Amino acid sequence: MGVGIVMRVPFSHDQFLTVFANYNTALWPVAIVLWVATLAGSILLVRGRARGPGLAALLTLHWAWSGVAYHALHFTSINRAARVFAGLFVAQALAFAWTGMVHRRLVFAWGGGPRHALAGVLLVFALAYPGLALSTVADWPRAPLFGVPCPTTLFTAGCLLTAGPPVPRWLFVIPVLWSFVGGSAAWLLGVAPDLMLFVAGAALVAFAVAPHALDRRPA
């Protein structure tokens, strides 16, 4: 199924944007609240004041909301695979809740190395996503703005890159999967901001395989 999505998408560009129009029109207040909460969480993280359970709760909310409000309630209208995506996003939400809130195994810390610089780029990009989408994809309300899968994945990648190893590798699987599925669809549909998903996915793979590789400064 993933290969099929990489090769082609089962809906038109206009249908895709109409889904966002319906989503934004119905749920825009929640998207604003989620953006503000994400800004606050990012500031606390960069200042070294983010608490693991609190940031894990924010990530849980992001993935549960994207899975239910976007995939299940809206994207299923044009793509049968959205049911599968909804299940994966809810599973990722439960994974963050279980690992970061129940067992408190996620510790986020800010530093000055290349890994944290890349994390900062992804956090800023996720927060700037609504403006980038409005300027490059479509006007309101047909643009993908916030509380949807791609900015959720970008924000998640930024957070995970600041997590102190060892981080359970299975937490990376679904974000990496969506990075390449969503990025491939973005290439075909001309959604330029989503191309940053390829960077996020590659960074997560590198961090999962060699946790300290991105901490090395050039000689």
What attributes does this structure have?
disordered N terminus, 219 residues, mainly alpha, single chain
Could you write a compact summary of the structure shown?
This protein is mainly alpha-helical and 219 residues long.
Q: Can you offer a commentary on this structure?
A:
This protein is an all-alpha fold and 219 residues long. The chain has one domain. The protein is built from eight helices and no strands. It has helices at 2-7, 13-46, 52-72, 82-102, 114-136, 149-160, 173-189, 196-209. Helix 2 (13-46) runs antiparallel to helix 3 and helix 3 (52-72) runs antiparallel to helix 6. It is globular and about 45 Å long. The chain starts with a helix and ends in a 10-residue tail after the last helix.
Largest sheet: none
The rounded Rg comes to 16 Å
Distance between the terminal alpha carbons, to the nearest Å?
43 Å
Q: Number of DSSP helices?
A: 8
> Could you state the order of secondary-structure elements as H and E?
HHHHHHHH
Structural class comes to mainly alpha
What's the rounded overall pLDDT mean?
92
Helix % is 55-70%
Q: Could you say which overall geometry the principal axes of the C-alpha atoms support?
A: globular
Percentage of residues in strands: under 5%
Question: In total, how many beta strands?
Answer: 0
Counting structural domains, the number is 1
Q: Could you list the spans in which at least 5 consecutive residues all have pLDDT below 50?
A: 1-7
